Every structure is written in C-alpha cells, then in structure tokens.
Amino acid sequence: MNALIRTAAAATLALAASMPMGAQAAPKVGQPAPDFVGTDSQGKTHKLSDLKGKTVILEWTNHDCPFVRKHYGAGNMQATQKDARKDGIVWLSVISSAPGRQGYVEGPEADALTKSRDAAPNAVLLDPKGTIGHAYEAKTTPHMYIIDPKGTLRYRGAIDDIPSASESDIPKAVNYVRQAISQLKAGNAVKPSVTRAYGCSVKYGW
Q1: How far is CA 128 from the centre of its chain?
Q2: Is the dihedral of CA 50, 182, 86, 70 positive or negative?
Q3: Which of 4-8, 164-168, 195-199 comes out lowest in average pLDDT?
Q4: Is the Cβ–Cβ distance between 145 and 153 less than 8 Å?
Q5: Are 142 and 61 in contact (CB under 8 A)?
Q6: Less crowded by CB within 10 Å, the N or C end of the chain?
C-alpha cells in the first residue's frame, strides 16, 4: 500500500512539474491579482504593482480572432476602452500569441492595429512567452480582468453575456465590463464577478 501511495504521489508531482507556470494557482476574485512585469509595443516596461491606486483592466486580444473582430469591428471594444479611460482607468491590452501562431505581432504592427482601429488602450503588452497569460490563466480572446485600486482582482470573464461572433448581438448584450465599472464607482460589489469567457483560445506556444 505504501508503495502504491508513493507511486501516486510521484505521478502527481511529475504532472505538476509538467504544467506551465501559473497553471497551478488560478487567480481568484477577491484576492490580490498576480503581479507582473510586461513590455509594451513601444518598448516601455509596465509593472502591475506600480499601478496601485488605479483601477486596471486587462484585455487579452488577438486581431485575427473572429470574436475579437466582432467587438472591434463594431467599435464596441474601443468605446468601452475610451469610456473607461475617461474614468481614470488604466486599460492594458495583452497579446499572448506565440511567434508563428495566430495573432502574433511585434511592436510596429501592434501600434498600426491600434491606430487603424481607433483603439484606445493605455498600452499594448506583448507577451509572446505567455508569462502574463499563464499567470492569469487567460483562456480566450477576448478575456477580461478588472483589478481595483488596492490591487484586488474584482472581475474575470467575458466582455458580455452573448457568446457569439456576430456584431448584431452587441446591442442586445449586457456588457459585463461596463457593468462592473459602474458597480465599482458606486462602491458596490461586482456582480457577477466571474463569468465564462468566450472567444478563440489564446495561442500560447506552450
């Protein structure tokens, strides 16, 4: 029996060791958001802990994903970004696509996409190794996270409640991000605080 227990334990440890970093402890709403250091499309470094005192929104994106194109093509993501920034929120778009995979871009292309779509993030973080993505267990594009001024994760999940790639569904949908921002501004709890994200899978390299 002891031999069986030791074998099972060894197998569990081997499985854990084979998991990507960050896959063993999912970020939890109500707990401190995982800190990170990331480089943006213009080579500037951003550290989450340096943004204490500000609400931060993280948006995982992939410009070739039809679900992302839905929200950018209709202007929905850009409008949400701009309204958030008017409230002093820091909006960081994150690209975790690995080199050679769908959605991968380097700095100049990321900047060109931002300009051509009239997007308004504070910065676009390039995460080709998936370090930030795995720390947050980002699954889809889009996948949204809201962090309050104390550094606590207050929302994670979908941008809205209609999981389709059709622009015509946007006016009928509840925009969870806008709703959460309004709740935070009013000093209320975010409800729902966790939703099922929908979209294309994040194109990690590992």
Answers
A1: 14
A2: positive
A3: 4-8
A4: yes
A5: yes
A6: N
Q: How far apart are CA 206 and CA 204, in angstroms?
A: 5
Q: Which CATH number fits domain 36-201: 3.40.50.150, 3.20.20.70, 3.40.30.10, 3.40.50.300?
A: 3.40.30.10
Are β-strands 200-201 and 37-40 bridged in parallel, bridged antiparallel, or unpaired? unpaired
Cis upstream peptide for 192 (omega within 30°): yes
Give the model confidence (pLDDT) of 83-139 as tens digits: 999 999 999 999 999 999 999 999 999 999 999 999 999 999 999 999 999 999 999
Tokens 């308004």, residue located: 120
Give the DSSP letter of residue 175: B
Q: Is the dihedral of CA 34, 39, 45, 46 positive or negative?
A: negative
Residue 5 corresponds to which amino acid?
A: I
What span, in angstroms and rounded, lies between the C-alpha atoms of 40 and 124?
A: 5
What single-letter amino acid sits at 106? E
- Dihedral angle computed from the Cα positions of residues 150, 188, 138 and 62, in that order, rounded to the nearest 10 degrees: -100
Reported confidence tier of residue 25, pLDDT bands at 50, 70, 90 = low
Domain ranges of the chain: 36-201
- Judged by DSSP in three states, 23 sits in coil
